[in-house]
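[job 4471] stage=fold_predict status=RUNNING
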Amino acid sequence: MRIARLKLVFAAALAVAGLTSAVAVGAGAPSPIQQAAQKSATAASVKFDFSLSISGGGSSIPGGKLSLGGTGAVDSRHKAADFKLDLSTLAPLLAGVTNGTQVPKSIELIAVHNALYLNFPALAKQLKAPGKSWVKFDLSKLPKSATGGVNPSAASSVSPQQALAALQGALSIHKVGSDAHGTHYHGSLNLQALMKLVPKAQQASMKASLTKAGITHLPFDAWIGKGGYLSKFVTSIAVKATAGQPAVKVGFAINLHDYNSPVHVSAPPANQTVDGSSLLSSLGGLTGGGK
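[job 4471] inference complete, writing structure tokens
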């Protein structure tokens, strides 16, 4: 996928981060979704299952469609998470990053603060660490070519007050009804209105990329379940075709459950881990470089 699409992903990520930060203020939450997000964001832990699909994209997506699914758990108090992913359809694309090393059909990732640990013995062997199982990546060292020039830590520098002000002008929702997941709401986030959450030096580039991609809003459906927690979130984005870049559609769905249940996540043992920093430069090739 090229830079414009990655910038879109980071814009959406910042929007979600802004939502979480804003509702954490707790005062005067203007909608049921924000109230539920506030409660969900302050939970000690949560478990989830999710699916991500990408279709279109021309030759950059083998077979015209990719899908990714998995399960996981988050320990909010210790800023840690454990993911188990199904990578069966992503193997051809990921082979470019792993220099041809065979990608397993399923894989486990552990995130602790800014570090990501990948359970991938074959990749560890390629890094001249045979016998080790985990590869460590420092996310703060991701190359700009992999993030579209967006600083991944930008969301954490946004104050709750800034996020709340931006969100109140960008979020609109209405109630749809109720089903097995709880109370169903349909909403929309105005991404252009959320640009103030992006560092000023990156706002013009981000706006230009969103405009070029034909994206102005992030539509979503959200459900509020038992106890007032968010139980499901679904969104879909269609990026229009441009010169040299085919149209692509991205869909994401996540189910959230078992809030505040016991979750234990820790970094793998150091003697089973190898540093994967040398592989981060490969992400520039995966994104296609360019502007």
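[job 4471] summary: The longest strand covers residues 45-56.
[job 4471] exit 0
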